[in-house]
Design a protein that fits this description.
Blueprint: H1 9-19, H2 26-43, H3 47-62, H4 67-81, H5 89-113
Length: 119
């Protein structure tokens, strides 16, 4: 289980298949993402791996969705999932926000570089 708690291309593929829109229902996908983040926080001791996995989950959930709505549901699901263990919530939410903003910025750059952007 060498890669069991590390971000890998296989995990990225699985997370995208499970969480990305519009194939999966957003409420269910948000709860599943929060559950994965919760397990990651509790079970992954390496901080770099932990944050990379949280980034994978966040990016997967936001793919193909309205970013603001998906972020709102993910924040609420994280708060609910961590209701009995509040200490890491601020750090996790900050990481999710940064990841969501980076994806938004990347989406904006793709649109502006598209040949149709000026139309």
């Amino acid at each position: 289980m060498a890669d069991g708690k590390k971000p890998t291309p296989e995990k990225s593929h699985i997370l995208h298949a499970m969480l990305q829109g519009p194939e999966s229902e957003l409420n269910s996908a948000s709860r599943l993402a929060a559950d994965f983040i919760h397990r990651t926080w509790l079970e992954v001791s390496d901080e770099t791996d932990r944050f990379q996995l949280i980034d994978l989950v966040t990016n997967s959930l936001l793919t193909g969705r309205d970013r603001e709505h998906a972020m709102s549901l993910l924040r609420a699901a994280i708060k609910t999932r961590f209701s009995s263990y509040q200490r890491p919530v601020a750090v996790i939410l900050a990481r999710v926000e940064v990841c969501g903003q980076l994806q938004s910025d990347a989406d904006g750059q793709e649109e502006s570089s598209s040949p149709r952007a000026g139309l």
